[in-house]
Amino acid sequence: MDPDALGKAFVQHYYTTFDANRGTLLNLYQEGSMLTFQGQKIQGLQSIVSKLTSLPFQHCQQTITIVNCQPSDPGGGMLVLVSGNLQLPSEQHALKFSQVFHLMPTPQGNYA
Questions:
Q1: What is the pTM of this model?
Q2: Which residues of 23-39 are buried (b: 16+ CB within 10 A; e: fewer)?
Q3: Using CA atoms, how far apart are residues 91 and 7, in angstroms rounded to an integer?
Q4: Which pLDDT belongs to residue 109?
Q5: Are 42 and 35 in contact (CB under 8 A)?
Q6: Which residues are CB-contacts of 90 (< 8 A; sequence separation ≥ 6)?
Q7: Which phi and psi angles does 48 have, rounded to 5°?
């Protein structure tokens, strides 16, 4: 599959799931996964999902402006850089954000 198409499909799925039910993002991480959020390093499936579900807002609207994808290693990994705007219901102005995903193929044939 084309890396750009795969990366964009992942990003759409991730943020749709983030908005609908953050708890189900568990399926997109592995036990060795790490999330760095505002300088705090969070590792492991349950810890990452716990952090995401405890964010102080339930709904937000993302406007994705950039999705850059590139292969990361011969094993099929991929780096996906996302940037855009995040509008929270309690905020008058949108917040800028960026996020990097390092997707790795799983034995089941998908990426996490």
A1: 0.88
A2: eebeebbeeebebeeee
A3: 29
A4: 62
A5: yes
A6: 57
A7: -65, -50
CA atoms within a 13 Å half-sphere pointing along the CA-CB vector of 98? 5
DSSP H or E segment with residue 35 = strand 34-37
Q: Which residues of 89-109 are buried (b: 16+ CB within 10 A; e: fewer)?
A: eeeeeeeeeebebebbeeeee
> Mean pLDDT, the chain, as a whole number?
89
- The pLDDT score that the predictor gives to residue 104 is 87
Instruction: Tell which residue, 56, 60, 71, 62, has the closest CA to residue 102.
Output: 71
Cα gap 56→33, rounded to integer Å: 23
The per-residue pLDDT for range 51-70, each reduced to its tens digit, is: 999 998 888 889 999 999 99
